[in-house]
Amino acid sequence: MSLFEGEKDKSYEIMGLHVEEGITRRLQALGLNDGTIVTVLNRKKNGALIIRVRGTRLAVGKHISSGIEVKEAA
């Protein structure tokens, strides 16, 4: 499933990034690598998600969050 489909207040493990190469490199620099746990903190009306990654809050748009493959964290 994609991160965009994730529910608020749930944690997910990143399985892969399927966006443009430049965006992929930027996300990896921010700590969004395979195996990283992210938590969906909030969902905005315009489709943006507020997520927590390694103690940092990030806002990602619908285009990017749709390209982040995740599974529910155990």
What share of residues is helical?
A: 10-25%
Q: Low-confidence runs (pLDDT<50, min 5 residues)?
A: none
What is the mean predicted local confidence, pLDDT? 95
Strand elements, count = 5
Report the C-alpha radius of gyration, rounded. Answer: 11 Å
Query: β content, as a range?
Result: 35-45%
Name the helix and strand elements from N-terminus to C-terminus, one letter apiece: EHEEEHE
> Structural class, please?
alpha+beta
Topology, pairings included?
Layout: E1 11-17, H1 21-29, E2 37-43, E3 49-53, E4 56-60, H2 62-66, E5 68-72
Antiparallel strand pairs: 1-2, 1-5, 2-3, 3-4
Could you explain how this protein is built, in words?
There is one protein chain. The protein is of the alpha+beta class. Helix content is 19%, strand content 39%. The protein has a five-stranded antiparallel β-sheet. A hairpin with a 5-residue loop joins strand 2 (37-43) and strand 3 (49-53). It is globular, with a radius of gyration of 11 Å. The mean pLDDT is 95.
